[in-house]
Amino acid sequence: MKKIAGxxxxxxxxxxxxxxxxxxxxxxxxDVQEKIExxxxxxxxxxxxxxxxxxxxxxxxxINEKGEVVAGVAERWEANVDNTEFTFxxxxxxxxxxxxxxxxxxxxxxxxxALLPSTGSTSLEDLYxxxxxxxxHKGELGAEELGVKALDEHTLVIQLEKSYQDFPKLxxxxxxxxxNEEYFTETQGRYGLEAKSMITNGPFTFRTxxxxxxxxxxxxxxxxxxxxxxxxxxxxxVITMNSEEIAADPLQALxxxxxxxxxxxxxxxxxxxxxxxxxxxxxxxVFGLLLNEDAENLKIKEFREMLFKTIERQQLMSRLGExxxxxxxxxxxxxxxxxxxxxxxxxISYPAYDEDVLRRLPSLLESQEWDTVPxxxxxxxxxxxxxxxxxxxxxxxxxxxxxxxxxxxxxADTFADRIANGEYEAALYTIPSRGNNLNSFFxxxxxxxxxxxxxxxxxxxxxxxLLFDKEAYQSLESQxxxxxxxxxxxxxxxxxxxxxxxxxxxxxxxxxxxxxRATKKE
Length: 522
Hints:
The protein is α+β, with helices and mostly antiparallel strands. It contains 17 helices and 23 strands. The strands form 7 sheets. It has a 6-stranded mixed sheet, with helices on both faces. The longest helix has 18 residues. It starts with a helix and ends with a strand.
């Protein structure tokens, strides 16, 4: 009885001391629109999973709020003369969340494991620049041949297949994250699937081993032993998944602080701006016409070509108005190549209007045994400009093909589901920049993409062979355009706003949300 009383007194004293902590409790909240199923950096595929991984792990480098490549676990690095070998010097105090020292070997194991065929990882294009990475992923070479070596506990050398001066930026991606081999082995296949089977090295970690309720929420807390430059001000970050409360009234959820940052539609952004609320605008996407090459009436490439080359672009752009800038190609403006815009000024890479293409129509009808041109239905969202563009396409096609093309307007959730499941013929779709580099952008056209825009084995092969060469990217872009699947119309923006109760949240061009300086207003 005395022992129980003593324990009770100790508990009360501990609770009192905890309540008197000098750290003010600052809780930030953010909702993602997907269910998070894996937080293993080698296997995660969803945007929402990348959001969390970016908070609980740290790679060799990070991107700061200005979009600059800065120190992560590597406090400094240098390259050889021709930028084919990079040496990274790790922080000597870098640790895992269980206080195990983090070493260069953890990066060797993490990167190697992602490339091994037995791991089953996808979207590895950012790793293919590493010497022998492609051959190892194909099973043609052993893991010991990979150009990633630990010289000692705090020095990592990475050899590349070819010169690439922007390589440090790639190391901010999730496939470059470290993994402790001993801990990974002990989890016996549960790594990344539950909080109690993970150790982390980022500025946030799991609040408790029960802090991840799959499909509901993840509770993160400021990491106790993190000593990098991105130590957050907030004590907790709560990430909810598909919150019904937020979905029911997003702007009310934002104003009340139910969420501290929210991605907005263009109309929601305009409403908030009209009310005097500051909105973060990112020029990081391209809006255009997406044709489903697997749809029954669109399997014929020649028919897709006719649809694209009979688009009356000038009248289409006049419907959008001056606030929408014409897209000269499929690549967003925000994507650069070695510090310069990838899409050069005045450079046009979309199918030009060609009325002569209709001369081939009779032979197409005969070859397909069509009495008339099939009627195609355009799927679009409820926003006004999508509706306006769709009507412009229909008016043009109806006149030129003497066929009644149709429009189907759906809400945002239905639209996303239909696109993801391939349940459409044509759609007005916005392609984001994704990781804000050419690899990440073009990856969206692969057959195994989370939302596959194309299903083309030849194109998949071309993407698997890419080795960070601008001419190769331009060739790939031409290959995509020659399939007549996506017709760029205008550059598009992404919009975010933060709650009135929070401050210091920044959004990068690739839509990574930076919480490290975020806090609550007094």
